[in-house]
Amino acid sequence: MVKAVIFDIDGTLVDSVDFHAQAWQEAFRKYGHDIALQDIRQQIGKGGDQLIPVFLNPEQQKQYGKQLEEDRGQIWKSKYMHRVRPFPRVRELMQRLLNDGKQIALASSAKGDELKFYKRVAHIDDLIEKETSSDDAKRSKPYPDIFQAALAKLHAVSAAEAMVVGDSPYDAEAAGKIEIRSIGVRSGGFAEERLRAAGYVEIYDSCADLLENYAKSPLKEAKAA
Fold first, then answer.
1. Residue 7 — very low, low, confident or very high, per pLDDT cuts 50/70/90?
2. CATH class for the region spanning 4-15+85-220
3. CA 75 to each of CA 22, 63, 78, 153: distance values in angstroms, whole numbers, following the listed order
4. So where are the chain's domains?
């Protein structure tokens, strides 16, 4: 029985993955690292604590890793964040879940102010009360910290009674580590084979596709009490 659904945001609810990759690429370039956009894109879904070590060695991380991440944040907010748009029918999906008696939480590696912005962009700021940000997790995905924090904010919901909806393999890997099942959406641009290998129980094109097939989806296993 699914009593609660925990949503990732970037690539799941809002169309932001390419913009994040571009911001990281610019930040790396400032420090002499010309990294292919597609290589960075494949790491989006992780926070900076997990993404930076993919491209910098320990000495480089110590020398300028923290400043690089701060620069990335400034580039993101000044050039890209305002260009983010919601995916279709996100609000309708949230309303359907609430009408079905299920709790909803957002679990993102975004900063707290960015999370508020995303909720407004997706037109769900009046629907969602439970959320976690980078401030609630010591380590970002694929570690499970952010989902553990989200689960703790839900009312009387066990891992077996929750479901994660995400777009990256890191969402499924993180959820699986604490035995939460997950549904994948292709809207983040990851290959279906990679998503299935990460452990998603079902995969849909988008939130709109999930809503369209809600009655047959794992979300409709039983009406929450």
1. very high
2. alpha beta
3. 9, 20, 5, 32
4. 4-15+85-220, 17-83
